[in-house]
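Lecture notes, unit on protein representations.

Consider one protein chain, 179 amino acids long.
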Amino acid sequence: MNENILYGKNIILRALEPEDLEHLYQWENDTEIWNVSETLSPISRYILKKYLLNATRDIFETRQLRLIIQLRNTDKAIGTMDIFDFDHFHKRAAVGILIADKTERKKGYAGEALEIIKKYAFTVLRLHQLYCTITVTNTSSLELFQKAGYEISGIRKEWNWRGDNFQDEYFLQLVNSES
């Protein structure tokens, strides 16, 4: 197996470290992104410390994996890449991405992270498919995932409450044609 499978041209995806606590605290409590992450309340440093202590547990046990997106050849963490709802039996998992550092958005890092996680999921985890859900009004995420090869396979009508109305949500899939 390629040792550098989690390395891209400009970024790496790496394991969580205790030093990531402050980044996670800021990102998880950024109310501007709560509507995307479906967060409803602040998360304490205490809870995040406990989470970091358990982050070494295996994806087969926890059904999730969070990785830090870090600029290559630097120590700068710019966001997170998540695999969750991991289902080994059905060989699928959901993915989520956040470029939390607003100064690093629109530079291609999210697309690069999606390509890296696809290779990891299909070659290391041997998954058959990845999927995600995106609110229909989140056009930038929709464009990002479609550019990465994800296809809309369904729509959930009036799925998410957004304060004053319900919004539809797309269901997108990326199927591994080689599995």
